[in-house]
Design a protein that fits this description.
By secondary structure, the protein is of the alpha/beta class. The protein has two domains: 489 residues, Rossmann fold; 122 residues, 2-Layer Sandwich (GMP Synthetase, Chain A, domain 3), CATH 3.30.300.30. Helix content is 30%, strand content 24%. It has an eight-stranded mixed β-sheet, sandwiched between helices. A hairpin with a 2-residue loop joins β26 and β27. α1 crosses α2, α7 crosses α8 and α13 packs across α15. The radius of gyration is 24 Å and the shape is globular. The two termini are 26 Å apart. The structure holds 5'-O-[(S)-ethoxy(hydroxy)phosphoryl]adenosine. Keywords: Acetylation, ATP-binding, Ligase, Magnesium, Metal-binding, Nucleotide-binding. Belongs to the ATP-dependent AMP-binding enzyme family. It comes from Aequoribacter fuscus.
Length: 644
């Protein structure tokens, strides 16, 4: 850990929203008097239809949490209508197309009309409060309209990342019984077309309950059409009224479902509710990014991930901010794209993933230095641990040593930032997510569940509820309890390991379970394994992660073919294709090793620890192999290990 590099709060952040004294005072109050602290925060950040009876009530062992119960509000009003008196003509969404010549400014007034028309279109198709709507979209403004239109009528959105395969889309539509899908003919990314509507058609072949598919015309290419079910977005939405009365929902009514991977089984539908979620998204947006009125904020995530939900749509819009939404990829047309966009739109705050920083870093400094980036004030990262080298490059080259970097740790389940520096309050240590946000009480646990005091490393857990906490796993509350609240009684278990240094800074060390983080995308090893064993020539598969220079982690698959099946290049390709078909291109294994057998204990359990060590090429530290049923299996795997 580069303990010796500490970057103090720069002069330009001395008047930040949160100073060191304010952080201490607010954090203290958020822990000692949470009812007062969060009651005030809720008044300051949100507009309510009716007030609450209780600020918070929770019971971790039962997986229950309620924030602001008794209160009601509408999320789209909080993100749009209430800003109209001051901001009708301010840009709400600044859209930058894949093609650098395309961009669009959508004002708050326009956003209200677009969202209301779409909400009316949904109503006209029979969508009502509580219904689930699947959004499978490219990064175009209609994706945000769709989320907000659902919120306006109290429908529950389930955004599915446009890179997921038809099979993965089908599973998600069925799991939450979405009866409406919003998509586009095709997406455009890095000059390439993504066949979204064709993917939806394949998925819907197995989803008889879907009655409506709204299709945005993005590229204008030909698509198949199912009369009655499919509806062109533009025509249908344009014919609707621009007035749509917002539906007042209860604080704990669901806002969205977002699928994410765990260590076992199929992806889980993480359920978030309305008020608490929006409150934490809004408060973290303002304080962590030290957002100032009128600034342009750019989060490069896709709306298909939680980062896009909280920091492209809900957090920025709840604050009346200008949020930049980018359709393309950081390396198209070339590695200067992000920096050119920053100059073009005078972006003040730039928030991206370490994998993108590493991919741009290897292209050298020139693509950065040919741009000015004078508008930049603050940088941020999210999604995976950032290695100090990438951090230093981001800081010195991209930020010209002027802009603090907020390294934000959080999860789909936490809904919003949990551990992060506040740029006006904390000196930065490259690679450290630093300190808990207001109301977040952390602990590090030993294997036996005892708390570690002071310096040390252990399992990262949260000791009390926070407003944007996961409320349930859609359709399977027991799974919520089993996954997050059973490992250590009385705590929320994050699945991450962390270290706390002598100054109290937290350093996230990565997942301690069988979840991979590939280019910032979460994936269960079990999901990839299930895809591989679908092949009839495959007897068994075990998947682990290994360190990858750009992706952070790569996918390493050990595959045992059936007796008599040839380990051919053709089989190799079929396995890759299966992963793409079952999950999506992000699930392509980087390495497949043919394994005559897998190392197992005498009771038949695969010893992943050993497979991980072989994949990481750490052959000297395989540890105890004496419990293996057949130790020669390991020798064979080591000898046959492909060169990486
Ligand atoms: C990892 C993304 C280190 C972590 C918002 C977590 C991080 C998982 C950081 C959640 C960070 C996220 N430093 N690791 N700043 N941020 N992670 O649900 O392992 O896609 O558990 O949410 O990403 O991934 P998810």
């Amino acid at each position: 850990m580069s303990e010796h590099h500490v970057y103090p709060v720069p002069e330009s952040f001395k008047d930040a929203h949160i100073t060191p004294e304010r952080y201490e005072q607010m954090y203290r109050q958020s822990i000692d008097e949470p009812e007062i602290f969060f009651g005030n925060l809720a008044q300051e950040f949100l507009s309510w239809d009716t007030s609450w009876n209780t600020v918070c009530r929770y019971d971790f062992p039962k997986g229950e949490a309620e924030w602001f119960s008794g209160a009601s509000l509408n999320i789209s009003v909080n993100c749009i209508d209430r800003h109209l008196p001051e901001r009708a003509n301010q840009t709400a969404l600044l859209w930058e197309g894949d093609d650098p010549s395309e961009s669009q400014h959508i004002t708050y007034a326009e956003l209200k009309d677009e969202v209301s028309q779409l909400a009316n279109a949904l109503i006209a198709r029979g969508v009502t409060k509580g219904d689930r709507v699947c959004i499978y979209m490219p990064m175009i403004p209609q994706a945000a309209y769709a989320m907000l239109a659902c919120a306006r009528i109290g429908a529950v959105h389930s955004v599915v990342f446009g890179g997921f395969s038809p099979e993965a889309l089908k599973d998600r539509i069925l799991d939450s019984d979405c009866q409406t899908v919003i998509t586009a003919d095709e997406g455009l990314r890095g000059g390439k077309r993504v066949p979204l509507k064709a993917n939806v058609d394949k998925a819907l072949a197995a989803c008889p309950n879907v009655h409506t598919c709204l299709v945005v015309k993005r590229t204008g290419s030909d698509v198949d059409w199912s009369e009655g079910r499919d509806v062109w977005y533009e025509e249908f939405v344009a014919s609707q009224s621009i007035d749509c009365a917002p539906v007042s929902v209860a604080a704990e009514d669901p806002l969205f479902i977002l699928y994410t991977s765990g260590s076992t089984g199929k992806p889980k539908g993480v359920l978030h509710t309305s008020a608490g979620y929006l409150l934490q998204a809004a408060a973290t947006f303002k304080y962590v990014f030290d957002y100032r009125d009128g600034e342009v904020f750019w989060c490069t995530a896709d709306v298909g991930w939680v980062t896009g939900h909280s920091y492209i749509v809900y957090g920025p819009l709840a604050n009346g901010a200008t949020s930049l939404m980018f359709e393309g990829v950081p390396t198209y047309p070339d590695a200067s794209r992000c920096w050119e966009v920053i100059d073009k739109h005078k972006v003040s705050i730039f928030y991206t993933a370490p994998t993108a920083i590493r991919a741009l870093h290897v292209q050298g400094d020139e693509p950065v230095k040919r741009t000015s980036r004078a508008s930049l004030r603050l940088l941020g990262t999210v999604g995976e641990p950032i290695n100090p080298e990438a951090w230093e490059w981001y800081y010195k080259v991209v930020g010209d040593s002027r802009c603090p970097i907020v390294d934000t740790w959080w999860q789909t389940e936490t809904g919003a930032h949990m551990i992060t520096p506040l740029p006006g309050a904390h000196a930065l240590k490259p690679g450290s997510a630093s300190f808990p946000f207001f109301g977040v009480e952390l602990a590090l646990l030993n294997e036996d569940g005892s708390e570690i005091e002071g310096e040390g490393a252990g399992y990262l857990v949260v000791k009390r509820s926070w407003p944007s906490q996961i409320r349930s796993v859609y359709g399977d509350h027991q799974r919520l309890i089993d996954t997050y609240f059973s490992t250590y009684k009385g705590y929320y278990f994050t699945g991450d390991g962390a270290m706390r240094d002598a100054d109290g800074y937290y350093w996230i060390t990565g997942r301690v379970d069988d979840v991979l983080n590939v280019s910032g995308h979460r994936m269960g090893t079990a999901e990839v394994e299930s895809a591989l064993v679908l092949h009839e020539g495959i007897a068994e598969a075990a998947v682990v992660g290994f360190p990858h220079d750009i992706k952070g982690q790569g996918i390493y698959a050990y595959v045992t073919p059936m007796a008599g099946v040839e380990k051919s290049d053709a089989l190799f390709k079929e396995l890759i294709d299966l992963c793409v078909a079952e999950i999506g291109p992000i699930a392509k294994p980087d390495i497949i090793q043919w394994a005559p057998a897998l190392p197992k204990t005498r009771s038949g359990k695969i010893m992943r620890r050993i497979l991980r060590k072989i994949a990481e090429n750490e052959l000297d530290s395989l540890g105890d192999t004496s419990t293996l049923a057949d130790p020669s299996v390991v020798e064979n795997l080591i000898q046959e290990r492909p060169q990486t």
